[in-house]
Structures are given as structure tokens and as C-alpha cells.
Amino acid sequence: MMNWLRTNKYAAILLMFVRLYVGYEWLTAGWHKLTGAKPFDATGFLNNAVAKPVLETGTTDMLYPNYVAFLKAFALPNVKLFNVIIPWGELLVGLGLILGCLTTAAVFFGMLMNLMFMLGGTVSANPWLFFLGTIVIAAGANAGKFGVDYAVLPLLHKWFDKAWERIFHKPRGRLTH
Question: What is the 3-state secondary structure (H, E, C) of 99-150?
Fold first, then answer.
């Protein structure tokens, strides 16, 4: 199944539609935050995630105490940074997926945002987008075959190979399947 997902042309076509759907969801989420009547502000979400953390069923024990500590110690004091990163991140993830440009990097960062939102207690479409993102990331380069990745990835491989040779003075070893 993985070989089919990573190499088959028909899988690449199906992945293109999954990629377009997930990309559209991310793009519109970011666009609405950037162009809304009020500027995007994550303060309410972050305060709520700290005040009402995800609790273990039947107890008052926090399920993700490290995440809550991260929100208190880093995210809330730097909320202005998050007010920029979140909408632009969503927009760029969506754009990357729709164009098929750096597809696996775009879907990785989208999945990371999905995970952070879910850890903060927001479910909405996040589990569904995380699941679809898992399929896209498992497919690797085949997910962007019908997109900009078709042209960009060979150029990046060539650039990284040259950089490797300059740094280590030897050709990079190739992985075999």
C-alpha cells in the first residue's frame, strides 16, 4: 500500500484532490484571519486553553501539563508573535498545498498546527485535517507530483547535493529502496 501511495500515478491524482481540499481549508482559515473586520488575536484562545485545559475523564488532572506550561510561559507572553504566525502560517500552508510546492513541508506544519489546536481543546475539523495530512505526508513527493514540486524538488536535490559536497568534500550517499 505504501509503495502504491508513494509511486503510483493514479495515487498522485487522488492525492492531488486531497491536497487541494486540505489546502483550501488552510488557505481560507488564514485568509479570514488576515482580512477579518477585527485583527486576529489569539489571546482569548490561549487564555481559555490555560484556564480550562483538557482534563482526564473523571478527574481534575491535566492531560497535557507540558503544553499548558508552554502556553503560560511562552505563548501568552509572546501572543503578538502568535498573532502573526498563526494566520500567515495557515495561509502559507494552504498556498503550499494548493500549488503543490514543498508539499510535505507544508502538510507537516499544517499537522503541527492541527496538533497544537487539539491539545488546546479545539476539535472542529482538526482531527479530519490531521488524518488527511497523514496520508499526504506518507505519500511523500508523490503528493506534489502534479504541482510545483515536479520542478522544484529536482532543483533542491541538486542544490543540496552540491552543498553536501562543498561541506564534506565527498558525494552524498544515496539511499536505496
Answer: HCCCHHHHHHHHHHHHHHHHHCCCCCCHHHHHHHHHHHHHHHHHHHCCCCHH
